[in-house]
Amino acid sequence: MDLFERTEQVRTGAGERAILVHMDLPDAFGREDLEEFHHLVVSSGVVPVAELLGKRDRPDPALFIGSGKSEELAQLVRQEEADVVLFNHALSPAQERNLERAAKCRVLDRTGLILDIFAQRARTHEGRLQVELAQLRHLASRLVRGWTHLERQKGGIGLRGPGETQLETDRRLIRDRIRAIEARLEKVRKQREQGRRARDRSETPLISLVGYTNAGKSTLFNALTTGEVYVADQLFATLDPTLRKVRVPGVGPAILADTVGFIRHLPHRLVEAFRATLEETVNASLLLHITDCSAEERDDNVASVNEVLEEIGADQVPVLHVYNKVDRLGDAPRLDRDEQGRPWRVWLSAREQQGFELLHQAIAERLAEHWVDRWLRLPPEAGRLRARLHEAGEVLAEEAGTDGAMLLRVHLNRVHFERLLREAGLSEKDVSVPAPQVAEGSAHSYNPERSHKAG
């Protein structure tokens, strides 16, 4: 049995019978939600047949749950004929090994369970590489558990002597495989950087959807983009990032990105493995933080997402909070503003497509500082600038003046606007004019009745 066949044995399988173990521990030692644990277990495809609950002041160094509970666990495994024991906590390699010896059954901790779910859900080549990288890093510290024969050195004719142990061979194979995956993911990262540079050149804003898993990100993404991202009422229904070009009223073209859902105490190895994917979040112009407002633990979920955003360096990106599933509360969609009057939180229902006009309004206002919406008076010699503005499709209205000048209303990205002015040798002060109702009295060349929308 080779290394990767043994790796597959660690994963849970559909239809397996599982014992769930949850200990009530003080916050200092980690807290996990039991209901969320049930959702994780069901999402993995195993069948929970029994629970072992308890309370401890601190985990036991050897068995985590203590010797008494470990004997109770072994009896429960025999009684229920369980195939695997799933812990709602992070276990050390030694604790996993000791628990497997006591229960005579495979043991997976919370991190291993989440890795298994990710392995089942990854569809793209990049996603599978990222999951395999996280699994190998997790497995590297657990090679000794259950495979004591690996500690023996190779023997036989021609192989005697101080040769490499099987355990050392496996560790070397894992290191080599990790390096190979990291090199391939580095190529993916460079490809993403090229795509981002192209977006930067066009000044197209990137709006990234983030949030707790099962909060409705993919449902909202599909409603806004008419996309076909897989949607299901389960944790981590989608892993692979999806980008679509959309047109936001009041903003214009934008890129909308749907990312992997977060979870409380998301394993650090997964954050590291998915860093290339999460860079779409770090480089976003605006984050839409999607929250299930009907969930009792919504405040804790928001805090968990914020922790991950801080870990990946996205805590400085502007955020608009979107409280989804407002229909479950029986409330109407609404828009909340902060002390400065800026949109702060939008309450909507992605499934019922209620409150989308408020969301568009909030996005437009939050991105307004990056955009210019004003009237310009271009002199006759600025014909090239006028043509460039039309090429970009950013002219909303236009009127010819009697002196050959042109009055235009433009809406475009500020960086793009300033670059076009520099190329034409003009400044914003040179061409900016008041709005039409003011311009009509001061600029007789403007006739509002003849104004038309640019086609």
UniProtKB/TrEMBL annotation:
One matching Pfam family: GTP-bdg_M
Location, primary (coarse class): cytoplasm
Keywords assigned by UniProt, alphabetized: Coiled coil, Cytoplasm, GTP-binding, Magnesium, Metal-binding, Nucleotide-binding
Taxonomy, superkingdom: Bacteria
Coiled coil: 171-198
Localization per Swiss-Prot or TrEMBL: Cytoplasm
Region of interest: Disordered: 432-455
InterPro entries to which the protein is assigned, alphabetical: G_HFLX_dom (IPR030394), GTP-bd (IPR006073), GTP-bd_M (IPR032305), GTPase_HflX (IPR016496), GTPase_HflX_N (IPR025121), GTPase_HflX_N_sf (IPR042108), P-loop_NTPase (IPR027417)
Positions of the Hflx-type G domain: 205-371
PANTHER family: GTP-BINDING PROTEIN 6-RELATED, GTP-BINDING PROTEIN HFLX
Assembly information from the UniProt record: Monomer. Associates with the 50S ribosomal subunit.
Name of the molecule in the record: GTPase HflX
Gene from which the chain derives: hflX
